[in-house]
User: Fold this.
Amino acid sequence: MNIIQTLQQAVSAVVQQLYGESVEPAKVIINPTPADFEGDYSIVIFPLAKAARKSPDVAAQEIGEALRQQVVDISDFNVVKGFLNIHVSDRYWQTFLSESLNNPQFGRQPKNGSKVMVEYSSPNTNKPLHLGHIRNILLGWSCSQLLEAVGYDVVKVQIINDRGVAICKSMLSWQKFGEGQTPESTGIKGDHFVGDYYVLFEQKIKEEYTQWQKTPAADTAFEGRKKAEQSREDFFKEYKNKWFNDHSQLGAEVRDMLLRWEAGDKATVGLWRQMNGWVYQGFEKTYGDLGVGFDKLYYESDTYLLGKDIVEDGLGKGVFFKKEDGSVWVDLTDAGHDQKIILRSDGTSVYITQDLGTARMRYHDFGAERIVYVVASEQDYHFQVLFETLKRLGEPYANGLYHLSYGLVELPSGRMKTREGTVVDADDLMTEVIRIAGEQSGERAEMDGVSPEKQLENLRKIGLGALKFFIMKVHPKKKMIFNPEESVDLQGQTGPYIQYSYVRINGLMQRIEKEGISLDEAAQYGPILPQERDLLLAIHEYPAKVKEAAENYDPSLLANFCYDLARKYHRFWHDLSVFNADSSSARAFRLQLSRMTGHVLRSGMGLLGIEMPDRM
Assistant:
């Protein structure tokens, strides 16, 4: 039991003793004392004043006196405007530090017997992973680690979108313009190679559309427009999709290729397998470089026909209904949505049909009581409809579904567009931040004497740490702009700033080992100074912060905690001497405190997928 839980129970008991009123310990509000007041923790007395039938200040004074007599770990207290500020004894903090240092699982919870599935990444096989995917992947990976840290058995999955019109565009483009080239023959990474042909297809389709607009057929289409005031330019912007389906030669070839794939044409399926194989090799390299992975891969080519059994179930339960044309729908108007089609009149499925079937299949595969979908905010409505439909169907996991919706991520130059080839590939972005980290390290010349191989490894950790932290520190639902230069800044709220604290601590630990310094006198140190207490309070908060981040599916809570802890350590380092402390007990205590800070920084950043370098 930590000091906050002790205080909550003690306050509950004291209120019962003094005023004869029952208060649940969990409802006693305790927060860290603000910096401009004296104390470690502040108890909010206002909700208790009613039970006391006294003013908040009087009640706070009475409760404080009783607590000081009954709780050995309270050394003093003060009352300020209805808040009871508690000073925790040095003895408690000494014991806490010692026990924490001897607990390799500090911040983690025991297994709780529950299983949760996290779906993230889920790319298309017509292009490489890009900056938007990186935010998705990092959120999914970190949430997986956080959920595991608080006791869940976590299954990490992705569904790869490996079929459809977009995939056929890259296939047709390579078939028509590739001249037999391969990733091996060109030296281009497989996913980039295929993505280049997708961009080439869009260039070719643009050329074809431009030429078509000069034809009599285009004139006829324009003359038949519904908006008489619409300009020719605006009309053809809106008409492009209809032109692609009704007039485009390349469009007709793409649709024909998709039909041949669905019919199982041997040559088409062979080409599909070959090109997807190139992409998968590229994906695996990117995932490896990011330090992430999956327990199970699902493919849309296997799942796109799923859901037909759920349709029958829904019709039988009266959840779904048929219209006159034979199409199947669900009416969600009473839940604030609309009527949603589940099956077309020709018996073919739509996206939600697949998702209904995939959810059931995954439950049968793993029995996860909770499923977290990491998908951008553009799909908010889709998941609202999906989850409501699964609840009405009575699926056993329906109440454990969560959409981790996240905002778009852009570069300072603006939004990226795959079709125009302006997307920043994940690989290129990782290379760029590592390059910037190398430039900054070269300017400081602090890796002198380190082998070239070790330098590269440290630069990789710094660069990727900068990239990951910059993205993870932002609340998932917020849109964000990623600035590579800013992310690597050692002075800002960045990953390298936190890594530098750890490297500094790591240097101290190496010196302890090298010089054989004993830390046995740490328990004799006192009184604990404000800078030391700040660190202890932050470290004490770590397990609760991990739990909070996991419960809210919000890694930014942990990212900002790590930054705050690093900031407190920088202040501690600046204000107090460690190796040249006034006494051997002060040195031993501060070295132990430094070691524990390093443990928490490494653990917390690790839950964000960020590795710590040895040197910077």
Summary: The CA atoms of residues 391 and 398 lie 5 Å apart. Residues 416-421 have pLDDT under 50 and may be disordered. Residues 426-607 form a domain with the Isoleucyl-tRNA Synthetase; Domain 1 fold (CATH 1.10.730.10). The first strand starts at residue 30 and ends at 32.
